[in-house]
Amino acid sequence: MRSPRGWNEAWPVGRYWRAALVVFFNYGVDTGTVWKTLPFHEPIRWRHISWGRQSPDRELKESSPWGWLYYRRVKTGKAFWRPMNRTVRLHLKSLCPDEPDPDAPVFLGGGTRPNIRFRQLCKLAGISPKRDIESGDERLWVLKDLRKTCATYYDEHVPESSVEILGHSAGGITYRHYAHRAPLAFRAILSLPQPSSFKTLARGFEGQCPCCRRKFEEANS
């Protein structure tokens, strides 16, 4: 992926997009949760990441070996502290500056219209536009489609877990029916099988150790 004109960030734009796709896949977040494209969006910032095992939300009793991620749904405004799995942690670590500004956004490179860049990625990957079953018309992919992908993967992995993970609204009897799914979602996130393209970072990113970013020959010394 080509960097936008005037790009002068420390990392290539593709690294930000790769990490963003990992977050989309694992949490089914809204586009406005990743990139602030409208004034009311609250993007993920560095202060929203906790690298420790214990959740900053004291109501959560579980501990995560890979840390925690905070975000807020655009549509409902509902906030979540979600456990990070190893893949999410490695990709966020790969973006983290030595001294991150707590209020700085984690993800850059989305521009004002992230869906346009997403379609460029789809084209580079050789992914054809989706086709409407009834009309047969082609429709361009949008980042919102990744929420459906996330739900499908989670429900195949741990049935019914997507309701809690995607933050669907539920009230009354429905809420009581879904109340048991928070621990279910915790287990699903930590154990979700990752695409092979997401696993390469665990073996090193661009010849560097993903933890300390030293060259492999230096990291082993």
From TrEMBL:
Listed GO biological process terms: DNA integration; DNA recombination
InterPro entries in the record: DNA_brk_join_enz, Integrase-like_cat_sf
UniProt keyword annotations, A-Z: DNA recombination
Gene3D superfamilies in the cross-refs: Intergrase catalytic core
Domain of life: Bacteria
GO MF terms, alphabetically ordered: DNA binding
The protein, known as: Uncharacterized protein
Originating species: Aureliella helgolandensis
Classification of source organism: Bacteria, Pseudomonadati, Planctomycetota, Planctomycetia, Pirellulales
